[in-house]
């Protein structure tokens, strides 16, 4: 059976989890017990990778090879025949997923991390804070908490192009859900994870789309 190794709040993990749920294939979800302990991933990848998500499918161990690769999603798409990456829209998708994973994710993860004490186990919080501060500077988590109102305003503005796309069609690129729908869903799932936020009321199409994406199965998408 396919195994997805994850943290439940991680945006990139939510993307793959929703794709697996959408596909209807049985899969096993494994949460890493400690945010700082990547030894299982390090071992499974023969010391080549330590991040999540990681996918294990029998002897195949699948992980991202670069900032903008979509190795896991493309593996699942091929194996499970999901139609998420049609060649005819690869160009549009590859531009969109860069925007989603930088402009959107760059705000959503900070907004969620501002509440890290509520979802990171207490014993793990020191390594979580250290990991964030090594990358973003001392006091970053408290800063993000203080910047919440401004970041939510920016997020609403950066979501406008998606609202406009969804005014014209049920999914971002047409009548069927494609990879970018799952990608945006993952970033927004991370934003909503702490329970402190709602999607902006001024993005009504996006709110309806998010609700639809939450329970979508492959048979609904045909
Ligand atoms: N582009 C990668 C990014 C994965 C990523 O950044 N994962 C984070 C968790 S959300 C991680 O494990 N980072 C390394 C670390 O925390 O040490 C993907 O799509 O999978």
In short:
By secondary structure, the protein is α+β, with helices and mostly antiparallel strands. The chain folds into two domains: 2-80, Glutaredoxin (3-Layer(aba) Sandwich); 87-215, Glutathione S-transferase Yfyf (Class Pi), Chain A, domain 2 (Up-down Bundle), CATH 1.20.1050.10. The protein contains ten helices and four strands; from the N terminus they run βαβαββαααααααα.
Commentary on this structure:
This protein has 222 residues and is an alpha+beta fold. It folds into two domains: 2-80, Glutaredoxin; 87-215, Glutathione S-transferase Yfyf (Class Pi), Chain A, domain 2, CATH 1.20.1050.10. Helices cover 53% and strands 8% of the residues. The chain is built from ten helices and four strands; from the N terminus they run E-H-E-H-E-E-H-H-H-H-H-H-H-H. It has helices at 11-23, 39-44, 71-80, 90-113, 125-136, 140-146, 148-158, 160-168, 179-192, 204-215; strands at 2-6, 27-31, 54-57, 60-62. The protein has a four-stranded mixed beta sheet, with helices on one face. Strand 3 (54-57) and strand 4 (60-62) form a beta hairpin. Helix 1 crosses helix 9, helix 4 (90-113) runs antiparallel to helix 7 and helix 4 (90-113) packs parallel to helix 9. It is globular and about 45 Å long. It starts with a strand and ends in a 7-residue tail after the last helix. The model has no long low-confidence stretch (mean pLDDT 96). It binds glutathione.
